[in-house]
Design a protein that fits this description.
The chain is α+β, with helices and mostly antiparallel strands. It has one domain. It is about 25% helix and about 45% strand. A hairpin with a 2-residue loop joins strand 10 and strand 11. Helix 1 crosses helix 3 and helix 1 runs antiparallel to helix 5. The longest helix is centred in the N-terminal third of the chain and has 23 residues.
């Protein structure tokens, strides 16, 4: 039982280190002009609404069952199906925990209609590029800081990659988990669509696909396999897990030429169904990510 507990603790600690994805966009289809720099900061909340609902529902059902048994002076019995729901809900919230965090961004214009940027969000570092493919409007240069911008419609395509940094203090206390062998990488493909209404207000929509590849620590996976062999309880963990997110960000920005405030919400579906503790478990579901932020443009 102790070995099983160690494996379960390792799973929770490792996944909780960084599996909640930062889904914010905090930018429109407008690109920075060559040499222009933009710095920003944001704050968002990751909400796995489907799995939170499943966990609450399961808890209410079991509490009601326990109360009924207590009133009838009977022993509470938990069925295999109820136990399975508890395990799945717990694993889902460990893998994709509700969480909040800051992000810090920096972008620079490389050439006309193309800029690149970086993002640091506490548990991850992201690099991305954006190329504007459509521009409709009188103002054809991207975001000159001291000039008025006319109404415009823009479309851009992007590509980004994220490397997660796992530094959970709980994980560092587990001597059987070698963090050097645990990795997660994301690939993001967004399409930016935005409408600017003059210089002070804009709306944007960003459909996006995010693919995540998670590789578990080999020693943790091996320990789980040994537990399964010695105890007869299936505690096996997958060596790798693939996660997909399909959704879109809708937002608005307002302010002046050099300073803009952003408010947005990302909604979509997370797809994750790893083979965990003896069966394929659906850990995904509807996911929301409301966020706010600001950006300052230089030059």
């Amino acid at each position: 039982m102790k070995a099983i507990t160690r494996v379960a603790l390792g799973l929770v600690a490792v996944w909780a280190s960084g599996c909640a994805t930062n889904l914010a966009s905090m930018q429109t289809a407008r690109t920075l002009r060559p040499g222009q720099i933009r710095a920003g900061m944001g704050y968002g909340v990751y909400l796995p609404t489907t799995q939170v609902g499943n966990a609450v529902s399961t808890g209410i059902d079991l509490t009601s069952k326990a109360a009924s048994a207590a009133i009838a002076n009977k022993k509470v019995t938990v069925t295999d199906a109820e136990m399975d729901k508890m395990v799945t809900a717990g694993a889902a919230l460990a893998a994709f925990p509700p969480s909040a965090g800051y992000e810090y961004t920096m972008r620079v214009g490389v050439f006309e209609d193309f800029d690149v940027g970086g993002k640091y969000s506490l548990n991850a570092v992201k690099l991305d590029g954006k190329y504007r493919i459509v521009h409709m409007g009188e103002q054809d240069v991207a975001e000159p800081p001291d000039e008025e911008t006319h109404d415009s419609f823009d479309v851009a395509v992007g590509l980004g990659g994220t490397k997660y940094i796992f530094a959970n203090p709980v994980v560092q206390l587990l001597d059987y988990v070698n963090m050097g062998n645990f990795d997660r990488y994301d690939l993001e493909v967004p399409v930016y669509i935005s409408v600017d209404l003059g210089s002070h207000f804009g709306l944007y929509l960003v459909p996006k696909w995010i693919y995540s590849h998670v590789k578990f620590d080999e020693k943790l996976v091996s320990t789980a396999q040994e537990c399964a062999c010695h105890t007869g309880v299936d505690t096996t963990l997958p060596a790798t897990v693939d996660v997909n997110f399909l959704g879109a960000t809708a937002g608005l920005n307002a302010g002046w030429r050099r300073f803009k405030v952003f408010a947005e919400i990302t909604a979509g579906h997370t797809f994750a169904k790893p083979f965990l503790f003896g069966k394929y478990r659906d850990l995904g579901g509807t996911t929301l990510y409301p966020s706010v932020g600001f950006a300052i443009t230089f030059r």
